[in-house]
Amino acid sequence: MKELCPLDYRYGHEDMKSIFYATSRLQYQMDVEAALAKAHAALGTISAEDAEEICRVSTLDIVKPERVMEIETETRHDLMAMVKAMTEQCSGNAGKYIHLGATSNDIVDTATALQIKDALDIIEKDVDILIYSFAKLAKRERDTLEMGRTHAQFAIPITFGFKISGYIAEMLRHRDRLREIRPRACAGKMSGAVGTGAALGKNSFKIQETVMGYLGLEYEPAATQVVGRDRYTELICLMANIATSLERYCTEVRNLQRSEIAEVSEAFDEEKQVGSSTMAHKRNPINSENVCGLARILRGFVTPTFECQVLWHERDLSNSSSERFTLPHVFTLLDEMLRKTNYIFDGMTVHSENMLKNIELSKGLIMAEPVMMKLTEKGMGRQDAHEILRKASMTAIDENRQLRDILLEMEELKDILTPDEIVSVMNPAGYTGASGEITDRMVAAAEAALGRKV
To answer: Does the pLDDT value for residue 276 go beyond 50?
Structure first.
């Protein structure tokens, strides 16, 4: 095995990776050259026959990648190697009109915009699938009681459906961001060496509009030699934002699957899967850990993307080598992470009985707040009620007793709350607030966005 990058042998899916293969990049670039020829013909700069011939050869069936590489070893210029290889295949005079009026990055950046456009299609589909899985899980676990935790300590009760509802809301925002970024991220250029369109002549504006119209892209209205890299910065930052959300969800799975918590667990093939090479009992949250690890790699591409935004004058070449890494890796990694996160949550086992056991472990301390609120309803000042519950809680902790029992013994409460009221107000199931309604609303929001019922 000679593979170097884990994307070659371990991570990534073929439909996403194929967008960024060298051969695919070559085809996207030839698609741009074909669109340029068609635009010239539409405006009368070249004949329709010549444009048709250029379009005919703009395919990997005719222009072989091996020939392009052979020419590149001589020219040391990848784009010019493609142009020469295309010219070789043209009959008549058509070859002399290939790349007419364009500079290399007219082709490169516009081809990159086509790659981004196709890659975003896959990411948006992944996001929709994950939102649907979240919505199914939230609906199923709408009323499943769970301990709410802050600072990794017991807080007050929630439902597991409520927890997942927060994930739905976050992913719906990411879904909106993905749609909003399209016109800015999917933008090419066809304006020549420094963006003035001089080589394209009086029809420069029309040629650019026509080319991008054929390709379904926006265009840079005031380019340098390249499309503005602020577009890529925004895009990569969004990808990193989504990846960080996925890491957040999977970190929660890792914590909730801890042996001493044991409230959820990833799917595990009991017939074949091995958790450890030595500890035969292990069922590790490996998929969640994998997502967390990949998120850290993905975020690492943010810094070089920012640095590539700073180019000298109308441009230099310092961005080129970096971007050959950033865009393919970021899209491939995020696609991998989205699919894996969906696998985790779609096949998740929720241990509701352990959730109830963990609530019981609090010995009623998590119900201090509702008792305090009940006392204020009875006319006690909020601060006075808080101090009573604080002292009672400290006593319960010191004596390892139920908070309920401490409260039932307190003389200062006997004329305010009856024993039945204390017992009733300390029922965790009665203190989840609007958890159910919030869950219902987020499931409905997911259904509305996706256009289908859960």
So the answer is: no
Catalytic residue, chosen from 151, 259, 281, 313, is 151
**Helix H or strand E encompassing 256:** helix 230-256
69 closest CA partner among 77, 58, 60: 77
What's the confidence (pLDDT) of residue 46?
97
Catalytic residue among 18, 77, 91, 276: 276
To the query of whether residue 40 is one of the catalytic residues in this protein, the response is: no
Q: Is 386 a catalytic residue?
A: no
Which of 340, 147, 130 has the alpha carbon at shortest distance from 255?
147
More confident: 3 or 184: 184
d(CA 452, CA 450): 6
| 264 and 332 housed in the same domain | yes
Taking alpha carbons only, the member of 357, 343, 353, 390 closest to residue 371 is 390
Q: Please tell me the predicted confidence (pLDDT) of residue 275.
A: 55
Looking at the fold, whether 69 and 120 belong to one and the same domain comes out as no
Q: In the prediction, which pLDDT does 272 show?
A: 57
pLDDT score of 315: 93
Packing angle of the helix pair 204-215, 104-140 (nearest 10 deg): 40
Residue 192 lies in a domain: yes
